[in-house]
Specification:
Bound molecules: zinc ion
Order of helices and strands: EHHEHEEHEEEHEHEEHEHEHH
Number of domains: 1
Oligomer: single chain
Largest sheet: 8 strands, parallel
Shape: globular
Number of helices: 10
CATH topology: Arginase, Chain A
Radius of gyration: 18 Å
Distance between the termini: 35 Å
Strand order of the largest sheet: 2-1-5-12-11-8-9-10
Helix content: 25-40%
Mean pLDDT: 96
C-alpha cells in the first residue's frame, strides 16, 4: 500500500493570464496518469486536513515569509523573472508545507510509504528566498521537504537522507541544511543549468562537512548514466550512511521530453530508483520513506510518477521505456567517489 497526499487547493496557485511551465496542469496530468493506471482507486489518497501558518517560519526568515504573504495578498505578481504569486499562493504554499509534515504522521501510523503530490515545488527556496546566489526562486515559494526534514530532526531522528533526483540542484535545501549534520543531502542534477550551484566540492560546512553530496551530470545523461550512479555511488553510500529516514525530492524533469533540461532519462529510471530506495529503506530504517514532488514539466510526470508508485508498491512498472542513446557515467562516478571517500567508507 502507498499513501498519496493530495489536495485540490494546490491548483489555486496559477499564473493569471500568462503561460508558465509551473502550472496546475502539472498536477492535473499527474492525477490523470494515476487514474489511467487505476492507482488512485487502488492506493489510499488523503486530503490535507489542517493548515499550519507557523510552518514557513521553521526554515525561512520571517522577513521573507512576510514578504511573500504581503505580495500574495495583493494578487498576481512576479516575485522574480521566474517565479509568480497570486492571491492564493501564500495559503497554497503553506498548505504544501502542511501536507509534507502530515505525511510523517501518516507514514508512522500506517507503516506505508507516502508520496506527497504538492505544488508549488520547494527545493530552490532557501532561508531568505533565492538560495546560494541563485538569480531566482526557480518557481518555488516555501521549501516543502526542508520543513519535513526539520520536523523529523525535532522528533529525534539523527540521520535523515534527502535524495534529490530533480534535474535542477536543490540549492534551497542545501542552504537550509548546510551546517546541519543530521541531514545528508544527496543531489543528482544536470550540470551547468539553473541554479548554477551543486558542484562536487560543495560538501557542507562545520560539523556538517561531508553531509552534502553533489552529483552534477552532463547534458545527455540517460538511463545508463543514472544506473551507474545508482549502483556505484547511491547504493553503497546509503548503505554506509545507515539513515533512520529516507526522503526523496522527486522531480520528473530529468525525463527526455522535458523542455527545461537536456537529459535523456526514461520512465524506467524512476522505477529503478524508487525500487532501490524503498529496498534500502526497508533494510536500513523500517521502511521509513517519504517522497515529495518537485519539478517535471512534460511527460515525465505522466510516466515517471506511476512508475515510482509501482516501485513503492512492489509492483511491475506501469510504463516501459527504453533509452535511445546513452552516455557513460564513468567520469562523474569517479570524480564524485574521490570526494565522497574522504568522508564515507565506500569502496
Ligand atoms: Zn527541476
Amino acid at each position: 500500500m502507498v499513501i498519496i497526499v493530495y489536495d485540490e487547493r494546490f491548483l489555486r496557485h496559477y499564473s493569471e493570464g500568462y503561460s508558465h511551465p509551473e502550472a496546475p496542469s502539472r498536477l492535473i496530468n499527474a492525477l490523470e496518469s494515476l487514474k489511467t493506471y487505476n492507482i488512485l482507486q487502488k492506493f489510499k489518497s488523503v486530503a490535507v486536513d489542517r493548515l499550519d501558518y507557523e510552518l514557513p517560519y521553521e526554515v525561512h526568515e520571517r522577513a521573507y515569509v512576510n514578504y511573500i504573504r504581503e505580495l500574495s495578498s495583493k494578487g498576481f505578481h512576479y516575485v522574480d523573472g521566474d517565479t509568480y504569486v497570486n492571491r492564493y499562493t501564500f495559503e497554497v504554499a503553506t498548505l504544501a508545507l502542511t501536507a509534507s509534515v502530515m505525511s510523517y504522521e501518516l507514514r508512522e501510523v500506517s507503516n506505508n510509504p507516502v508520496f506527497v503530490l504538492v505544488r508549488p515545488p520547494g527545493h530552490h527556496a532557501g532561508i531568505r528566498g533565492s538560495a546560494l546566489g541563485a538569480p531566482t526562486l526557480g518557481f518555488c515559494i516555501f521549501n516543502n521537504i526542508a520543513v519535513l526534514a526539520k520536523r523529523l530532526i525535532n522528533a529525534g531522528f539523527k540521520r535523515v537522507i534527502i535524495v534529490d533526483i530533480d534535474a535542477h540542484h536543490g540549492n534551497g535545501t542545501q542552504e537550509i541544511f548546510m551546517d546541519v549534520p543530521e541531514v545528508i543531502h544527496i543531489d543528482i542534477h544536470q550540470k551547468g543549468i539553473y541554479p548554477g550551484t551543486g558542484s562536487i566540492y560543495e560538501v557542507g560546512s562545520g560539523e556538517a562537512e561531508g553531509t552534502k553530496i553533489n552529483i552534477p551530470v552532463p547534458s545527455g545523461s540517460s538511463d545508463s548514466t543514472y544506473k551507474e550512479i545508482l549502483d556505484e555511488i547511491l547504493e553503497p553510500l546509503i548503505n554506509c550512511i545507515k539513515p533512520d529516514y529516507m526522503l526523496i525530492s522527486a522531480g520528473y524533469d530529468t525525463h527526455y521530453s522535458d523542455p527545461l533540461t537536456n537529459l535523456r532519462v526514461t520512465a524506467t529510471t524512476y522505477y529503478n530508483y524508487f525500487k532501490k530506495f524503498y529496498g534500502l529503506a526497508s533494510r536500513l530504517c523500517n521502511s521509513r520513506l517519504i517522497a515529495v514532488l518537485e519539478g517535471g514539466y512534460a511527460e515525465g510526470i505522466r510516466s515517471g510518477l506511476p512508475n515510482s508508485i509501482a516501485a513503492l508498491a512492489g509492483l511491475e512498472p506501469y510504463v516501459n521505456e527504453v533509452e535511445t542513446s546513452g552516455i557513460s557515467g564513468k567520469d562523474i562516478v569517479s570524480e564524485v567517489k574521490k570526494v565522497v571517500k574522504k568522508y564515507w567508507s565506500i569502496s
